[in-house]
Amino acid sequence: MRSLLIVLALGALALPARAVDNTQHALGLGVLQEFTGGSSGLGRPTQISLKVALKPRLEASVMFGMTLGHDSVFVPGFKAAWVLIPEKNMNLYLAGAVGIDLRSVEGLHAVLYQFGPGLELFASDWPHVGFTLEFGLAGEAISKGDTANALGTAAQTGFGAAGIHYYF
Q: What is the pLDDT of residues 1-10, one digit of tens each?
């Protein structure tokens, strides 16, 4: 019975898309904001995101966020997303991301990762604007500047994010 369910699930993933080719949204520029700051409680800055549709169901994003001041923060990252359900006005996808959190106070550095589903909605009147919602699990490995213990404290938490992209 279990093998039958696996075969049916794999067959459903292999069905051709009956929707708009995702490459019509070939290059997107936008912003993404996390609702949670991770277990360290330090929050993340709003990130600028550049998305590229590599294939009809595969997207890649380069992101970076920065704040200046007493506690300056720079967060570069990369995200890959596999579109599970492409539709004319919606994409349901599964994404994974990695990044580095560099902070000026106390030499804090964190290697970040995220994994979870996302939803991108396109209004029929604004086909080049995508509204993004994501959630899932996030983790970070924190170092307080100690190179011998560079991946000192591992932490995991849930995350939520929202964003908007304009596609050229």
A: 444 344 434 4
What is residue 156's three-state secondary structure?
strand
Q: What is the pLDDT of residues 73-113, one digit of tens each?
A: 888 999 999 999 988 889 999 999 998 888 777 656 678 88
In whole angstroms, what is the distance from residue 21 CA to residue 62 CA?
A: 22
- Count other Cβ atoms within 10 Å, centred on residue 61: 21
Reported in sequence order, the residue ranges of the chain that DSSP labels E, i.e. its strands, are 27-34, 47-55, 58-67, 73-87, 90-103, 109-123, 126-143, 153-167
Domains, the chain: 21-167 (2.40.160.20)
Structure-block tokens of residue 117:
């589903």
Q: Tokens 């970070």 map to which residue?
A: 140
CA separation for the pair 55, 80 (Å, rounded):
12
Contacts of 106 (CB under 8 A, 6+ apart): 144, 145
What per-residue string of b and e applies to 88-117 under the rule 16 or more CB within 10 Å gives b?
eeebebebebebebebeeeebbbbbebebe
